[in-house]
Amino acid sequence: MNPTETTLILCGGPPNPTNLPLGAGQSNAMVPVNGKPVIGWILDELLFKGIRRATVVVREENTQLRGFVERVYRERMELRIATVRDSGSIVRSMQAGLEGETEPGLVRVVLGDTLIRDSFTGDRDFVYTAEVEDSRRWCVAVTGAVGEVVRLIDKQELDEPPFQALAGYYHLRDGALLRAAVDESVLAGDTELSDVLRRYMAVHPLQAQQAREWFDFGHIDNLVGARRRLLQPRYFNALTINPVLNTITKVSQHTKKLEEELAWFQLLPEELKVLTPRVLATRDAEGNVSVSQEYYGYPTLAELYVYGDLPREIWSSVMRKVLLIHQEFRRHPGELEPEHVHAMYGAKTWDRLDALRGQDPAWQEMLDAPVITYQGRELRNVDVLRDAINRGAERLAGSAPISIIHGDYCFSNILFDVNNQIVRLIDPRGSFGKSGIYGDARYDIAKLRHSLSGLYDFVMADMFDVRREADGSWTSQVYADARLRSLAGDFDRMVAALGYDVNEIRFIEGLLFVSMVPYHHGHPRRQQLLYLTGLTLLNDVL
Question: In what residue span(s) does the Aminoglycoside phosphotransferase domain sit (predicted)?
Fold first, then answer.
């Protein structure tokens, strides 16, 4: 039997509450960073490097982490889950991870709170190191003249910083020796990874290599910096962060989106600007627009909803808070021609569906079917519903309560400090049929509902399964906690108490789901579930 390459991701240690944001759940590996948990960043990096086989070591009781890994990555890579029964040492986690390997060759060891984007290849044994100032929180590597590790010092106060800390990746080519070193360490009662490495180093020297792209999620101060550095631009050409001034700058070229967003911030009444980051804007000689705003490290409600562990009563408080903000917006009525409202619900929907038809012949076939069977229920398809949708759009246009709206008032655009109930709103739409701050207030409520009841953010996190059965029918399952699903009824009662017709909100929500499908080209499974969710809502209310 040939030796196998093994990649161990160690997530079996106890959570450190001093390093976990409130509501982060059971594990540092599940702390959300810009819409994705730490373990997701690690596994995606392995896939990017061409590594498609890994063992994730978790605590037996950590069902959240195990469930996420199995559900989201099971079809993308060959994963094995190894469990440890107690919140034991990292050495026992390594032992559990290696137990299933009959003939280990190269072993890559990755700590579950670390992302390293440097190469994981090499023809010698090495560890990555990174420069730190505080030796008390790290295992420090002392190196020789040619970069070989000559000594490891665990979490002691040392003089003369900076220090070279072990960064969380270990490239060990002799799996048999590593397993023996782990077993010896367990028998000796050793608990630190450095104990294993010392035994390994006695036979094979370790080279220290400086990590160029290292993201540490295991310490709260470094987590903040990692979150900033990993920000991904959405609609813009580039995002940059000034860590001293705590500002984020968006740069865009020849786009209306950024100009509409900027105008929204500038036109917002002064008393509402406290709900948004402060804004500075510039335009260079080439016409490029850049917008600088205060940067807030608060998690989004989407991150808390999908990956958090907040109780139902906290979510009830959150819902009341975002609806109170909505009511503040409603205190500022405006004017908008009915044809602009109708365009948002009618023309936009059909334009988007026409675009979807052109993306793939499979969508042409699916949209042309008069009936789609989903979850055992026959649903009238959009062409059958066309007249009813158009009549519904006309009713909405004729009864729209026009006020200031955010325009994209969904969980991913609401930053929320749970400890202090502080909200900051980001990425407004800036138009509703035409540019401006006014729109149909019901649209913002429908956006909230599509996150809370429609579980949109779970779909974006790939926390679902959707499939077409042999008979052509469709089934799906979204992996949301039952306690979150129970919030839908609470939210609808709150919305009704504000005077809204819940069926109107659900109709708008259905239009949102079906019209967003072409924007998710490249993610066919997400597209399928988004469409089926929207079609279900439309059948419910029409």
Answer: 255-448
